[in-house]
Amino acid sequence: ASTRVKMQGMRATVVVAGTATGTSHGFTHRLVYLQGGKIPAPYRIGTLTGTAVGTLTHTTPDVSVLIRNQPMTANQRGSMPTNCVAISEPFYDRLFVGTANRLIWTLPGSPDAFPNTSDLAISHKGDTVRRLLTWPNNLTIVNRDSVYELTGNLFEGRSADYLLQRTAAKRGSYGYKSCIKTDYGVLLVSQDGFFLYQPGAGQDQPIEWANTRLRPMWMGVGASDPAALDGNRVPAINIGRLDRAVAAYNEGRIHIGLPTGANEDCSVLVVLDMVQQRCWYYTFPWLFSSIFWDRQDNRMFVGGVDGTIYRIETGLNDVLANGTATSIPYNIRSR
Q: What is the pTM of this model?
């Protein structure tokens, strides 16, 4: 390092020596930072292009440097993990990201800044994060086999006061896209039925009236399994692809897309009427991988795996992708 010189009430000329370049370096700019005086941390005061010797004359007052607000980026992730599966809505001005069984988050108001120290293990390896849901007093973390809640106000530095707790929920959610907020709690689609988790209460409750009526769906796809022996009153779920389940909620009804039989993607849409405690399902001639409720215009859409967007629960006829209208066949079976 060069000799340190105390400079007070002065202007400075900074000379930066030339730097080697090539395939192993490859940079094109050098940033010059200043710390001291009224500047408590390194702030950028100028940029030198190229790699040759350059001279930067600094004449900007400290207050102006602070107003420009270009602090040095330090101790932050240079790249994001490749297996990010969930991102939250803003929670205390931060974005939280789930990756495998870990949680990382940004600095307040800086969605592109992830400190290296903002990294927290969630559950054990294999119990991967499925969904991150924000509530007024906590961040609910739904894993494959468990549910956690994160509370606190500060999440960085020595003053951090956050607390991570595992709840008393007996299960998590196998579906990434099926874990949604509803007026009745957080929907959990598990290997043994549909459940609702109550944030803050720390418990999950089965949707018993629906699970009872749809029980054969979870009991195997074979010819000698209950769904087939029951006359295929309800289709059997492909449990191995339950992670591809999707869901949406609108006005007291939960719509759940499920892969059935040998299908890898959703082919059946189960509707749970939470007000009347009734349930029914639709079978579509195409596979879909997403569902969305347009709150503004009260419309329900599903996204086909072929890239087509379908509007459902509208009109008396189905309109196919080629524009042809066809009547809707109904098959009513009761227990």
A: 0.76
